[in-house]
Design a protein that fits this description.
- The structure is a single chain.
- The chain is α/β, with parallel strands linked by helices.
- It folds into two domains: 2-101, N6 adenine-specific DNA methyltransferase, N-terminal domain (Ferritin), CATH 1.20.1260; 113-395, Vaccinia Virus protein VP39 (Rossmann fold, 3-Layer(aba) Sandwich).
- 42% of the residues lie in helices and 13% in strands.
- The chain has a nine-stranded mixed sheet with strand order 3-2-1-4-5-7-6-8-9, sandwiched between helices.
- Helix 10 (196-208) links the parallel strand 2 (189-193) and strand 3.
- The protein starts with a helix and ends with a helix.
Length: 442
């Protein structure tokens, strides 16, 4: 409903600017027709209209002309269902949304903050945390990579659009001074997302950031034949947090050269992103510890990575940054394509003093990266920073999981009671997994 209201407000603006503008949405399905009047349809009539007229109509929009807006709207609603069973409540929500004018900058900016909060809350909502990267992470990575107007920017697993909106804001604040500049920005920001809900949230997010027709595709980036990605497809900048800890769809790995085939999504995305980068292109991505180590295919992929790209910096994050979605340790990798790696600088990000972990109420803050920014252009080894040469990496099988040499690992000791609690928790999780497997098998 938010998406439809934003689209309708934007179309009303375009109708004022361009006398020849015609909406791709049939008039009876436009927000203003069925939702604009606070005394309009409600109750069972509203629910029936949404289920049997609105959604089917949007899912079957005529896209034969190749109109990008029509394709985008159809794709948004192709995977959307109505779970609200009370038409009166639908009317109440509609009336509340009608209080917002998305063409008024004050309303739009205020709602933008609300929307960002909604996306952030998804981090702890079921399985949707994988689609949201903390704002502080997307912003610091974008600031360091510093995309500029005219450069093609790609996120091949864009989730709810955090990296894309960070890139938009970074470019807008420095380079956008005219309508023509905004058009160039719109044409050079690209994303792709497989799951319907985050795809819709991403498109809405970009529209809120004044991107008229977001260049975002609904589909699996890994489904593309690796060798079909040629020079015209390549980009200047990649910012991404590809999905990790999950297996790819059946047969997807066959799109990749035989020596690199794996079902681990993060490893295939790494290959894909190297392929998409232009020579001289630069990237900042999030990868779990599991992609930094391991032999066999994993080792061959890392070797390819280090030979094709200059992996100049790895920022090691505490393992609670992505909680509660994932508690695995993650890393920010910064690299450019076109020359092999000679040495890698490591920076260990430390938790704020007195804080044992990040949480929903105490998330990672952008200000915590101030020391990294100070160090970035004037590098020296210290208790948080160290460097490793390529010969050392070759000697250990291209293992990138290099621990901080300035920190001695503390021996963890537990009382008998604590050990029993840990064992009990392990058994509980095992029981849950077995029960889940049993349900899946049924």
């Amino acid at each position: 409903m938010i998406t439809l209201k934003i689209i309708d407000d934007k179309e009303a603006e375009m109708e004022l600017i361009n006398d020849d503008y015609v909406s791709v949405i049939p008039s009876e399905l436009q927000w203003r027709s069925w939702a604009g009047n606070s005394e309009g349809i409600t109750g069972d009539a509203m629910k029936d209209f949404v289920d049997n007229t609105l959604f089917p109509g949007l899912q079957n929009l005529d896209v034969s002309t190749g109109n990008k807006r029509a394709v985008l709207i159809r794709d948004i609603f192709a995977g959307t269902n109505n779970y609200m069973k009370n038409g009166t409540i639908i009317r109440q929500v509609v009336n509340k949304l009608n209080e917002i004018d998305f063409n008024a900058s004050e309303d739009r900016h205020m709602f933008g903050d609300i929307y960002e909060g909604l996306l952030r809350d998804l981090q702890s909502a079921g399985n949707y945390g994988e689609f949201y990267t903390p704002r502080s992470i997307t912003e610091i990575m974008t600031e360091i990579i510093n995309p500029r107007l005219g450069e093609k920017v790609l996120d091949p697993a864009c989730g709810t659009g955090g990296f894309l909106t960070s890139a938009i804001e970074n470019i807008r604040s420095k380079d956008v001074h005219s309508v023509e500049d905004l058009k160039v920005l719109e044409e050079t920001i690209r994303g792709q997302e497989l799951k319907p809900l985050p795809f819709m949230l991403c498109v809405t997010n970009l529209i809120l950031h004044d991107i008229e027709v977001p260049n975002v595709m609904n589909g699996d980036s890994l489904n593309r034949e690796y060798t079909s990605i040629v020079e015209k497809d390549r980009v200047d900048v990649i910012l991404a947090n590809p999905p990790f800890g999950a297996s790819v769809s059946d047969g997807v790995e066959t799109n990749y050269p035989a020596q690199f085939r794996t079902t681990e999504s993060a490893d295939l995305f790494l290959l894909l992103m190297i392929r998409y980068l232009k020579m001289g292109g630069r990237a900042a991505i999030v990868l779990p510890d599991g992609s930094l180590t391991g032999d066999g295919v994993k080792q061959r992929i890392r070797q390819e990575f280090l030979e094709q790209c200059n992996v100049h910096t790895i920022v090691r994050l505490p393992n609670s940054v992505f909680q509660p979605y994932a508690s695995v340790a993650t890393n920010l990798l910064f690299f450019t394509k076109g020359e092999p790696t000679k040495e890698i600088w490591y920076w260990e990000h430390k938790l704020p003093e007195g804080q044992k972990s990040y949480s929903k109420t105490k998330p990672i803050q952008k200000s915590e990266f101030d020391s990294l920014k100070t160090w970035w252009n004037n590098r020296a080894e210290n208790e948080q920073a160290w460097k490793v040469g390529i010969d050392t990496l070759k000697g250990n099988g291209f293992n990138l999981d290099i621990k901080n040499p300035f920190v001695k690992e503390e021996e963890v000791t537990h009382s008998t009671s604590e050990l029993l609690d840990l064992l009990s928790e392990s058994f509980r999780k095992s029981d849950e997994l077995i029960e889940e497997l049993r349900k899946n098998l049924k």
